[in-house]
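Attaching the record inline, Q. Sequence:
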Amino acid sequence: LLAILGTETSSKYEIKNPLGQRVYFAVEENGCFDRRLCSPLRPFTIRIADNAGREVIRVIRPLRCNSCCFPCFLQQLEVQSPPGTIAGYVVQNWDPFLPKFTIQNESKEDVLKIIGPYATCGCFEDVDFEVKALNEMTTIGKISKYWSGFVNNVFTNTANFGIQVPVDLDVRIKAVMIGACFLIDLMFFENSLDGL
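Structure, as predicted:
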């Protein structure tokens, strides 16, 4: 519908394991007005359910600013797992050149950092956001937007992402990393012409 009518519909996602098997599916909830007027800045609630349809993670993003000119109102979202119990937060950090985020636990204590590349266009290649320790020196994983071909990137909003983190990372922080992936997608790759 986006390519033909210019109408943005609620996003739907599949979350798969490394073997390509679907383990969760997710649906974005917000109003048509929010999608049309606010597009990549829109507030949303994403409900993530297991294959039996039970909601296991909820990602909540309020309406916030997406500009380095307003460092007091940058992006943030809350991740609940299970719904109603805060697992942690993703908070955008002000930086004039690089996309930077902090992963926080349920007590709003900093746990990890995410640092993206200077250019996120991803022309004919994957785009990696590195997951780092708090000192920003040690890379422990990454969130990647995979290049999915010229036609896919130009004419659709379909995208493939991967999250690589240590196996022993706290399961609640893994849930927050899923939320971070959604935020990165909407902030940097929402428009259909991204990737050109």
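The CA atoms of residues 60 and 88 lie 11 Å apart. Residues 171-188 form the longest helix (18 residues).

More tomorrow.
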